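Methods — Computational structure assignment.
A single polypeptide chain was analysed. Its primary sequence is given first, followed by the predicted tertiary structure written as structure tokens.
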Amino acid sequence: MSTIPDLRAEAARLLHANRYLTLGTAGPDGTPWAVPVTYAWDDADHFYWWSASDAAHSRNIAANPAVSLLVFDSRVSDSEAQALYGEGTAHALAPADLPAALAVFYARRYPDPAVRARRAREPDEFQGGSPKRFYCATVHAYSALTPDPHPIHGNTVPHRVTFPFTTAWAKAYEPG
């Protein structure tokens, strides 16, 4: 049987080990859209990324804030596959929220202060006439694959279970 601590540890490992997540949105007519985005997370279940304001997923979020997130390691074999799934809502950040969000994003993306100093961008690059916007998704529910047998199909198919998780737990996780 899988345990919640095992799923939490694996979820935290995935967050630390991956640079991209798959963002799922839906257009006003319900057409699904998935896109990889480079991301960072804080300890309050917020996931941050930047995108062009006219990108399909950005327009979708403006019309319908419901999103799904998927973080996974595509380098492992099928038998080792694991993913962290999230359901939540997203929005473009207001100018007043940009400094704090950018600090989180660039600190997580570039832990080395010298690299961060070169790579970090200023809030004005994500507001006004700029075509770029900074986004935040707040995840309300997490799920992951479980090694436990499927309740109907046994061990013939993998399945997901919802489990209690917060990125605050991932913050304390020591990769390695």
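Note: Residues 4-17 form the longest helix (14 residues).
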